[in-house]
């Protein structure tokens, strides 16, 4: 039985399912449009979808909004303005809410940055991935080094005092010197946040079917350590596996995910996780993935592709898979507040992880140890085994 004494913070995720071109490593729900993107119809569908979801969050304030994709910056300024106006009309959106828009350097939207900011976007997340023309070509990106640098410069010029650069490492044929150059270039552009993560080959991607030549595990580890050292020296503190930020510029939306907060999800393929104090349950919901299917069903029950009530034995694993990604871990009371269960639910795997040197546990904090941080899959595997009864 779940026992919520309070509900977690609430965020909103909005998915835009179109890209100019599908990248060979991407496993997100993104589609290359066959014709003109139906942006007016899509914004209307998003607002119908949101209106239909409102009864599940009556009276709750929305802390953050993240518009992801796909490439949502392909939307016109008018569409973004209509969307944000509709959100404000429907939701109790906090006046200081972090509102992030994902953008790609290769799209023609860079000149719109000032207008996006005027419409209410206060944070950008720019997917540069690399500053090497050769690497970008191998990754199938539609932009080059010049466009990547220009996108950050234009974010500054548009008045964005908070923006992220996405940067990948262990790229095809990449060596440590090239990886270091990428990090140094990103730092020189002075973003407030850098997401630095390793390229992985995901199922259902072209790279998975036709793997490129990647650095071996030892080389990838050296590249990662090198990049972390450069970021730390430049004042970017690591607060999650792949997230580095200036003081006071951590991504509030992602922190809510990692602390097992609640979130609404609207758009094709969007996911939601919602706690219910009246029914004492947590429900996960996924919307229809296909853009046309979504357009046809938004605002009706048919838009829901799947719905799952999280079981008691699952909730501990789900919480730990998120919270232990954070370098600082979490305060023990957060577990009960955000799961509706006492910490004793996961006491056995916590003790086992502590005995193996993978976890540090005190009255004030639970977090992965230095060893657990390096072998995070092993640490989380302890909770998986406990959940599956092995």
Brief write-up:
The chain has 390 residues and is of the alpha/beta class. 38% of the residues lie in helices and 22% in strands. Helix 6 (176-188) packs parallel to helix 8 (217-233), helix 11 packs antiparallel against helix 15 and helix 13 (347-355) packs antiparallel against helix 15.
Overview of this structure, please?
The protein has about 400 residues and is α/β, with parallel strands linked by helices. The chain has two domains: about 10-255, Aldolase class I (TIM Barrel, Alpha-Beta Barrel), CATH 3.20.20.70; about 310-390, Arc Repressor Mutant, subunit A. The chain is about 40% helix and about 20% strand. The protein has 15 helices and 14 strands. It has helices spanning about 40-55, 75-90, 115-120, 135-140, 145-155, 175-190, 205-210, 215-235, 250-260, 290-295, 310-325, 335-340, 345-355, 370-375, 375-390, and strands at about 10-15, 60-70, 90-105, 125-130, 165-170, 195-200, 235-240, 245, 260-265, 270-275, 280-285, 305-310, 360, 365-370. The strands form three sheets. It has a nine-stranded mixed beta sheet, with helices on both faces. β13 (about 360) and β14 form a beta hairpin. α6 (about 175-190) runs parallel beside α8. The two termini are about 25 Å apart. The relative contact order is 0.13.
